[in-house]
């Protein structure tokens, strides 16, 4: 029942479209002159046969199958943790390489007197 609009399936829309087209062709054929007016009968018979076929031979059953709870499986579990460990290792390496340079940066003393 995933393809429904306002609770109505695709088949109902097909039947409505079929009968609208049959009505339009019927009106066109009735306005014609001569024996072509009798073309209305086959148009409506074909529409009736197609409608009966759509109603009597549905694609799915009227009752839905029992609901089975979906099992959520994370297929990328190992890949995510490997990526997390690589990024963490790179962060810690960069931290421990750059931290001594920051802490051990030489601080030069300012001269007490200016010599001219």
Word description of this protein:
The chain is an all-alpha fold and 116 residues long. 57% of the residues lie in helices and 0% in strands. The protein has 3 helices and no strands. It has helices spanning 10-31, 40-56, 77-103. Helix 1 packs antiparallel against helix 2 (40-56). The radius of gyration is 39 Å and the shape is elongated. The N and C termini lie far apart (94 Å). The mean pLDDT is 84.
Taking the sheet with the most strands, its summary is: none
Give the CA-CA distance, first to last residue.
94 Å
What's the SSE pattern?
A: HHH
Which radius of gyration do the C-alpha atoms yield?
Answer: 39 Å
Structural shape: elongated
Mean pLDDT: 84
Number of strands: 0
Segments where pLDDT lies below 50 for 5+ residues?
A: none
The helix content, as a percent range, equals: 55-70%
Judged by helices, strands and strand pairing, the structural class is mainly alpha
Q: What count of helical segments does DSSP give? A: 3
Strand content: under 5%
């Amino acid at each position: 029942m995933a393809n429904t609009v306002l609770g109505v399936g695709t088949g109902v829309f097909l039947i409505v479209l079929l009968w609208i087209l049959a009505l339009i062709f019927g009106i066109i054929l009735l306005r014609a002159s001569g024996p072509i007016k009798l073309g209305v009968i086959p148009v409506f018979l074909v529409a009736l046969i197609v409608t009966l076929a759509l109603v009597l031979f549905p694609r799915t059953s009227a009752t839905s199958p029992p609901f089975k709870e979906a099992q959520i499986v994370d297929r990328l579990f190992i890949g995510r943790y490997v990526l997390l460990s690589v990024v963490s290792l790179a962060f810690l390496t960069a931290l421990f390489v750059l931290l001594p340079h920051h802490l051990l940066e030489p601080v030069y003393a300012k001269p007490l007197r200016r010599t001219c």
